[in-house]
Amino acid sequence: MDGENTKDTRNAENTKNAGNAGKAENAANAENARNAESMRTDPWESGPAYERYMGRWSRLVAARFTEWLAPPEGLSWLDVGCGTGALSTAVAEGCRPRTLLGVDRSEPFVRAATLTVGGGARTAFAVADAMALPVRDASCDVAVSGLTLNFLPEPAAGAAELVRAVRPGGGTVAAYVWDYGDGMAFLRHFWDAVATVDPAAAVALDEGRRFALCRPERLHSLWTEAGLTAVTTAPIDVRTVFADFADLWDPFLAGQGPAPGYVASLTPGDRDRLRTAYAESVPHEPDGSIDLTARAWAVRGVRRTSPARWTGQAGRSGRAW
Question: Residue 299: which residues within 8 A CB-CB, separation 6 or more?
Answer without folding.
Answer: 174, 175, 176, 216, 219, 220, 222, 223, 231, 232, 233
